[in-house]
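Checklist before submission:
- one chain only
- standard amino acids only
- sequence pasted in full

Submission:
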Amino acid sequence: MTIYALSSGPGISGVAIIRISGSETSKAISLLTGKALPSPRVASLRKINSISTSELIDEGMIIWFPGPQSYTGEDMAEIHVHGGKAIVLALQNELSKIENFRLAEPGEFTKIAFQNGKINLLKAESIADLISAETEIQRLQAVKIMKGKSAEKFDGLREKLLKILSFIEAKIDFPDEDLPDENVQQIKRDSINVLDQIKKILDDQKVGQIIREGFKIAIVGPTNAGKSSLLNSLSNKEVAIVSEIAGTTRDVIETHLNIDGYPVVISDTAGIRNSKDEIEKKGIKLSLDRAENSDLKLVVVDAKSIDLSGFLNDLLKDNAILVVNKSDLIEGELGSEVTKLDHVLISLKENLNLDKLISKIKERLKTKFIINEDILITRERHRQHLVQCSDNLTNFLKKNDKKDFDKAAEDLRLATRHLGMIVGKVDVEEVLGSIFNDFCIGK
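Returned file contents:
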């Protein structure tokens, strides 16, 4: 099948780009223009007509990319037309009339590029990350992965394991011949070296994933402390409903922010209290789950009634800032139980000290986003394969007896396979579905 899709953003725009890829791309260009194919990789102005009526649809640029020198590795073309919705729909309607043509699925152009060996799996993922990047730090990380350093690192480790595996399999094939002692020692050294490198990669504080997904901040605390008002103030817009009625927020309300170039996902959660309402109880459970999985907790309390016992004490133990709201209603000094904690006094009603809270958040962000050249893991998929590889290598190193060579070889094969799954060096059809479904249509 030959596929087509709108590759530029949906909606009205100055220019819209419709991409076509497949063996019959040239047929579509000829039918739409009534002329021979333009020169490869040269923008050519053509009248684009209805196939059935020859009525003019638009006048635009056609760029012809004969395979394999194209993004997908197949014959491919881009049609640049004016970005009106009616023009795009008319052109797509004409393409749908051609036999063996269909609308592309999300990420299908990039999936075909991967399957045709034009890019590896890491680069495919980085393209998706680059498209969805909202901050400069996310863009820089995606570009770095696109350059191929991560793929080179994982390929290098995989090659070392394949070399070790070749020695082990040779011993299995020729059991009467002993491996020289120097080879046995080299196998052990190389295996330990690869294992140490994988452990170092895994010990990354998940910085790459946090950059890609956003630094997660959960606003938690008792009811009527000002959590929803704080979310609205930090977002500079009305994201959450604010009410004097306790328990107004039942679900997690989430918004994305860009704080000094750092991607942040901030969540307002249901007020935590003893409740008999089943819906509110579910909201409270979601609040506690979100707090547990966040990178930072803003524990908001009412300055008039501070009680840090129970669940609040647990929330403040790790990665938390105590936010004492309604400070305009108190007089005198705060107690030692508050002052000994990382805290800030604010008044959302009077707009007091919100800048101090934002400064504290920025300090946490700068500490978390320590960028270096060793960030290789950007997705949980990568991490899980590296963990499995590490476990298999550890099992391999435990097998010293010659009788265990068959089992040792299987441990190495599994370790090698998990490294290959990261860059796409093995059959990963199941993985491909989950990756490319996240792409937009037309990429």
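Reviewer check: The first helix runs from residue 25 to 33.
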